[in-house]
Design brief:
This protein has a domain of about 120 residues. The protein contains one helix and 29 strands.
Length: about 350
């Protein structure tokens, strides 16, 4: 797809836009502008006067059916979950929280409930009547399982299945966990002196299943492929002249790790649903941009600037149908959420 894009779009340019973008109709806090490098139309979805934070990239937070997005904002004085109507721009506070973990927001598959961690407890709120209930205390991380109401949680440093009593799946676990598609096992992470470790524990072995080390070192942003065969992640690879950022994949069954593609200093990334495209946030100080990367051709296209003070927190992610890219940046004030239409560049999924 990227090979069909004019070469001028793929180059970094510093010229000012030659023509103004059509203004959006009045819609909440939406503000449309042309990116100064590529002239790509970008929509700022939230006002940078308050801090708006996207959920973790591996969480479900965009509804295609009802066209809304969930995020956290401190516009009420403390971080609370909000929904944003992507058609009208209308904002709706979903729940009042006391100590929300902003990145923990996650919709269920039916888009009827929102889950999050508040005051170290996993909580569920109904989107229809806003009733809240606590599912488990002392939770620092979680991820939905394959069946409705099923979760893997991290409690007091132990990986557990929420509704399965017995011994924990693993001990000494960091807050990150990610259930494998199909629900056959779970990824979890551990901190180490050399950076981070990614481990995998299968479910079919019962509570006695032994976790398996998949990768270690300077590694970030783990994602399962849609079929669950591979774990994708970023790895920093030192060379005599520089530290390179590469996308790697590893098979839980064989432990085989291989390079998928090099990147131009990605500090964060996410794949689209079928893994044919990646979107990344460059950590380059000279070119702080959001980039599309075609996996098969290993070709990059600069989408727009992000100019965030911390590129690793840009959290670029595709919408479930790959028609849009969402990211966050604080370059216009506090952290705000942005959207770019990429349906002419990326095959819909």
């Amino acid at each position: 797809m990227l090979a069909m894009v004019p070469a001028a779009l793929a180059a970094d340019r510093t010229t000012t836009p030659s023509k103004k973008s059509r203004p959006l109709p009045s819609a909440g806090e939406f503000f449309r502008f042309a990116d100064p490098i590529t002239e790509t139309p970008v929509v700022r979805l939230t006002n940078p006067a308050s801090t708006s934070v996207l959920p973790r990239s591996t969480n479900r937070f965009v509804s295609l059916r009802d066209r809304f997005l969930v995020f956290s904002s401190d516009r009420t004085g403390r971080a609370t979950p909000f929904s944003l109507d992507l058609r009208t721009g209308a904002l709706n506070e979903i729940a009042r929280t006391a100590d929300l973990v902003p990145q923990s927001l996650c919709l269920d598959a039916q888009e009827r409930h929102l889950y999050f961690i508040d005051e170290s407890a996993l909580k569920e709120v109904s989107l229809s009547n806003k009733n809240i209930r606590t599912l488990k205390d002392d939770v620092s991380g979680f991820h939905p399982g394959a069946s409705p109401g099923e979760f893997v949680v991290v409690r007091r440093g132990r990986l557990e299945r929420l509704n399965s009593p017995g011994a924990p799946l693993a001990e000494d676990v960091a807050s990150e966990c990610l259930v494998r598609p199909g629900g056959t096992g779970c990824l979890f992470s551990r901190d180490s002196a050399g950076g981070r470790e990614f481990w995998y524990v299968p479910f079919n072995g019962g509570t006695g299943a032994q976790p398996k080390l998949l990768a270690q070192g300077q590694i970030y942003d783990a994602f399962w492929s849609d079929d669950g065969r591979w774990l994708l992640f970023l790895r920093d690879v030192p060379t005599p002249s520089a530290v390179l950022s590469e996308i790697h994949e590893v098979s839980p069954e064989t432990g085989l790790e291989q390079r998928v593609t090099p990147t131009s200093q990605f500090a964060a990334f996410a794949p689209n649903k079928d893994g044919s495209m990646f979107v990344g946030a460059s950590g380059s100080k000279a070119q702080p941009t959001v980039i599309l990367l075609l996996r098969s051709a290993q070709r990059e296209l600069t989408l727009c600037e992000h100019r965030a003070s911390h590129p690793g927190l840009v959290s670029p992610v595709f919408s479930p149908d790959s028609r849009r890219v969402y990211f966050q940046s604080d370059h216009q004030g506090k952290s705000a959420i942005y959207s770019v239409n990429v349906e002419l560049l990326v095959e819909p999924t």
